[in-house]
Amino acid sequence: MKALKKAGLALAVIAPLQAFAADTVNWTKWDDASTGHFMYGMSNITVTYTGETLGMDPSAYIYDVPSSFTNAEVTNTPGTNGTILMSGGGPYLVNNFHFSAPVTNPYLDMFSVGQGGVPVSFVFLNGSFSILAQGSGHWGGGTLMQSGMAATGVEGNGLLKFYGTYTDISFLTPNGEFYYGATVGGLVAGVPEPATYAMLLAGLGLTAALARRKNKQ
């Protein structure tokens, strides 16, 4: 009986640890430079991009420094799902990611924003965001800087999280350079946020303590 209890507790501990290793974000799978889709809950979200673009790049090497595009909350990069490429320089042209249904707390990965001596900004027009990760990328580079609703890089790469519920993420790219890019995604259904993991582990600890106490009795 004790062996069965121990086995049960071991499985209870392994399950949440496996969740940490699993993909936590469904990134948009782009069909081309204007249309893609990702699963969000039980819904297949169609994503439509409008605005300035050089096309779509499905290359995985864009994200070959994963630490710049992920963190404890977002464990997977977009990989080969594709990234919308831009060159910017249109100070009044509004670029827009549109979701076919509302998405809560969406994420945005951006790469190669700016180049040496040429800072480039994404100026967002709605919502609020924070930078969760940043750093060098395939071509080296550095970090992103946030100032109000703008994220600026000099060959910067990073992960942004938007707070609230969205059907559209709109932004300007007023600075031009060779090319840079971005893509969006949403949380995988059933994957808790970091605070939920803490509560789950605390509960497992309590369960283990109660089991030890019962065994002693």
Explain how this protein is built.
The chain has 217 residues and is an alpha+beta fold. The protein folds into 2 domains: 43 residues; 167 residues. It contains 2 helices and 15 strands. The protein has an 8-stranded antiparallel beta sheet, with no helix packed on it. Strands 1, 5, 6, 8, 10, 13 and 15 form a 7-stranded antiparallel beta sheet that branches. Helix 1 runs antiparallel to helix 2. It is globular and about 45 Å long. The relative contact order is 0.21. The N terminus is likely disordered.
**Tertiary shape:** globular
Q: How many β strands by DSSP?
A: 15
SSE string: HEEEEEEEEEEEEEEEH
Number of domains: 2
- Strand coverage percent: 35-45%
Structural class: alpha+beta
- Radius of gyration, in angstroms, nearest whole number: 20 Å
**pLDDT < 50 runs, ≥5 residues:** 1-20, 196-201
Number of helices: 2
Mean pLDDT: 85
